[in-house]
């Protein structure tokens, strides 16, 4: 029971006790009789008027106490309702974020599958066809068909290049074979060449290969952050720092743009800005901490920290 | 009869591996003695058979080609390694060469060229696919000849770089040179591209290493 309610009840009970006491006094001690007699003897003291006043006041007090009690109860109900609304809202937010999370993960898995299929199946088949043509050209070098075979090889080369391009759109370039640092270097160089931004990248500490899920998550976070910088932040410079320390890997992304207030994340999803939610979700999925510090006019700073344990490498 | 050059093929795509085998079987001097489809299996096969040459693909499960190359060159220095890849990207080539590969050949090469590559590395040479030789030469020389770079950097860019080396911020550089912050950023972007670096510190370090930049030890 809350303090309000407790107090109101106390007052109510107190009044009841006082009333009871007076009744008892009257019954056993005839207190009013004595009072009246004494008042009659001392008329100048205006006792009867005072008694009337006292009776009116006590009725008023009772009414007041009763209303206090009623108010306290209704306040309780309102508070409970408000609490429920807040909880409902929080649940809705959480649901929205886990939805965005599921979409992001599903998307990633799908892309990975497609990239792998294109590489394992399509590109390899094209290579084998190329090999077959090359072998035929080798074995029948003097035949008139040799030049046709060479033309087939050229066309296949081009096709392989095109398919490769599709793959790089699905999967970060170089990430799987050469690691996060090389992949980020390439990403930042490409973004810098493509936009007017001055983006810098620094890898500190002893870089090492991390678990695939960690490297991919960090890569996607940088990709998302840079995409935000390019399209929303009105920035002119950005810096990406990847710091390999013995117990954790730190990723910091700063820009000098106009900052933004990442308050209403559900509204962001509604307007299609999956990017911001994606970053936090990706960080949490790999057990990393994610902090964003955005002040209008002071730019944005994103800080991610991935603790490393023996299973992270 | 002279001994054949023994070769182990490592590639996670069976059909491609079979094709490569057929290429090499066109040569009497070469014998394919083993195959593997991933890095770990490859280590076992290579350790068992001790071949003269290993042909390895970059993308593989369970230890990729780059790591396998490093392992072979370290544990079996007599065994040569040729990376046989579908890709000619600079980072792959550099990574392969840094890992100690004796050759880098593209998968779309002709049987004759592949056979030639194997024979070249056996003799102690390096076998670079002609399609990437120019590229690799470019990469190597550009990291040695500072003159090439300084000729590319304009006077203004050198000025900006000099001031960056002194630790000034973009704004301060702009003030000193009477140009806007944005202009300074534009210069830095060009500098990064020309020096092929990704940060201020890298630009300064590389410029100093190439001799383009002399750091003045004056206190200003």
What would you note in describing this structure?
The complex is a heterodimer of chains A (313) and B (220). With 313 residues, chain A is an alpha+beta fold. Chain A folds into 3 domains: 3-93; 100-170; 175-307, Heat Shock Protein 90 (2-Layer Sandwich), CATH 3.30.565.10. Chain A has 9 helices and 5 strands. Chain A has a 5-stranded mixed beta sheet with strand order 1-2-3-5-4, covered by helices on one side. Chain A is rod-shaped. Chain B has helices at residues 14-25, 39-49, 65-75, 90-98, 111-122, 130-142, 146-152, 155-165, 170-177, 181-195, 200-210; strands at 5-10, 30-36, 53-56, 80-85, 103-106, 127-128. Helices cover 55% and strands 13% of the residues of chain B. The mean pLDDT of chain B is 86. In chain B, helix 8 (155-165) packs across helix 11 and helix 9 (170-177) crosses helix 10 (181-195). A 6-stranded parallel beta sheet of chain B has the order 2-1-3-4-5-6, sandwiched between helices. By secondary structure, chain B is of the alpha/beta class. The chains are: A alpha+beta (313), B alpha/beta (220).
